[in-house]
Structures are given as C-alpha cells and as structure tokens.
C-alpha cells in the first residue's frame, strides 16, 4: 500500500491547486524526451486525461493502484501504454510521461515541513507504482503486437498459387509446425473449392527437414484433398530428404512424389491430357 | 584432429514447439562445423528433431545438449534429458509404428536408424536420457 486514505485526499487537494500550471509543467517535462515525435496537442490531451482520473481516484481515497477506485486510472494508463507501444516509442519514453509528474510537483513542496515531506515520499512511491504499471502494460502491448505479426507471417508464408488451369500448388518454405500445417491445409482445401481444381501439388523444396511430424501433416493434407476429389502430389523431395525419409521408415504409400515442381506439373498435365482423351488441353 | 573429447556444449531447454526448432538449428550448425555431408546433416537434424519432440511431448519438457566431438573423426553428439515418466517397455517403444501419442510411431525407432550411436537410459519414474552421435564419413 503506497498511500493512506488521508494522504491520498491531501494529495488530491494539492494537485488541484493551480492545476492549469501543474498540467502545463507536466506536459513540458513529459514532452522533452519524446523529441517532438508526439504532437504537443496529443500529449496535452493524454496528460490532461491522466491528470483528471488521477485526481478523481485520489479524491476517492485510493490507497494503491490495484484497489477498486483505481479502475479508471488503470484503464487510462493501459491505453496510453498501448498507444505508445504501437507508435514505436520505447518503454522508457512511455514511462517517463508518468514519472515526470514528480518533476512537475517537486517545485511545489515545502520539504522542510516533516508532514509535507512524508506526504510527498508516499506519493513518490505511488507514482513509482503507476510507472511500473505502465511498463507492464507496455510490454503486454508489445507482446500482442509480436503475436499479431507472427500470425500475419503465418498467413504470408503459405500462399496457394494457381500453376495451370486446374492445378494449384503450395510451395512450403521453412518449418512446418502444427499451426502452419493447419493453415496450409485450410488454404489448400479452400483453393481447391474456389478454383475447382482436380490437382494439387505440395512442394517441399523449401522445407529444411522432414521429420515424422512434418510427414504426418503432409499426409493428412493429402488425404483431406483426396476426400474432396482432388489428386495431390508431393514435389521437391531432395536426395538428402529422400534418404532421411527412408531411414525413418515413413511410407508415402500410393501418393505420387516427384523430385521437382516441374516434374510434378508435367505429370499432372500428362494425366489431365489422358483424361480429356489425348488432347493436351487444360482440364475444364 | 586432436584427441580432445569435445568442444564446449550448447544447451537448449525444451519447453515449447519453438524450442524444438532451436534444437534443430543448433544441431545443424554443429553438423556443419563437424563437416558432415549434407545427407548426414539432414539425418542428424531430423533425429534430434524427433527426439526433442519426444522430450517435449512425452517427457513433459527437458533439456538438450549439443556438442561437436573430435576424436579420430569429427561428429556431433546430442544428449537429451527429461524427468518425465520414463519408458516402461523400451522394446515396444522402439517398435516401428507403436505410438501412444497419435503420431506415426516412427520417431524413436527412426531416430535410432538415422544415427551411428544411440544410447538410451530410462526406467519408469526416472525420466529418460538419450545420447546420439553422428560421425563424419
């Protein structure tokens, strides 16, 4: 507990006296480290809002930030941190907006008076609490951002391309974990429906290692594509991958596999020519 | 080649899927340092990947040590350890196609075929320790 209820109310009164001047000093001090990357109007709006909820919470006799009257204050601080995190400010540049309240207040205390000194020391601890909260909200926001980006990357890294009329291909690059395998399967199956393609090629040239989990994901995708009536080939099996697969004992059964994407496409075109009665025309 | 038993080991904790990827990268780097051929690199990386996933899935997480060993030949040694439930029937666990986790049942047996040396020390309730070595040809 940083503040007692009485201290909290006394600080609220102190913050209210000459409030316009206090906010102006606070804005000036908070703005300095941001070197103009945040507009003054925006900063003033944030600080004024923060000031408003802070005084309101202190008025209610808030003893520490996690207590009930601090709800709105927590929300405003979290909002500020999230905004800064997304705008690319550092954690320090974010927390400094809170800590500069100390500087803004420092000129106003008569520290020779023991009672006043005690109040200010307690309030200092309380501001530290606010600062720490800002830090943790900031890092939480950054983690969200990273998770979002990882998800976007997941989508980016698994394009389904139309290779020919009636032939779609998925060039896999990188590690195929369960999450990505799921995305690949969904996208491939959707592409089969959207394009009405009877052939799909999964190209694993860019997959560095095929272990049993990767193989199992690929096999499941092939089976799912077959259930939808499409024929699915695997291409891009390099010599070292082939030898590893044999040593591991993985069997691809009757699934057609080819060394290169070009071979797979040739195979598919030949098959579709046979289907359409000898014409090397694309499948309708 | 010196008679030096090994270079300093690199340790990687295995507690998530990302860690399995990190183990693969460590083993690949070590395999390149030990001058393994591309096929042998892929084999040892794949074996380490299988075993690390077993450590994660069945052992409930553990740690992996990767080191380049230099004796008459150079090679890569990977040691995996977990304090999980251990393996009761090793014979059965090493049978192709046997799985308790819905996989293909080829991880442990396949990994043994992919490397030159394979040692396993396990008992119910004692966790599992596996050491594999792949030598450069």
Automatic annotation (TrEMBL), chain A:
Entry superkingdom: Bacteria
Protein name in UniProt: Polyvinylalcohol dehydrogenase
Keywords, ordered alphabetically: Phosphoprotein
Domain STAS: 157-268
Listed Pfam families: RsbRD_N, STAS
Species: Pilimelia terevasa
InterPro entries for this protein: Bact_StressResp_Reg, RsbRD_N_dom, STAS_dom, STAS_dom_sf
CDD domains: STAS_RsbR_RsbS_like (cd07041)
From TrEMBL, chain B:
Histidine kinase/HSP90-like ATPase domain ranges (all copies): 39-137
A Pfam family per the record: HATPase_c
InterPro entries, A to Z: HATPase_C_sf, HATPase_dom
Name of this chain's protein: Anti-sigma regulatory factor
Organism annotation: Pilimelia terevasa
Lineage: Bacteria, Bacillati, Actinomycetota, Actinomycetes, Micromonosporales
Gene this protein is translated from: rsbT
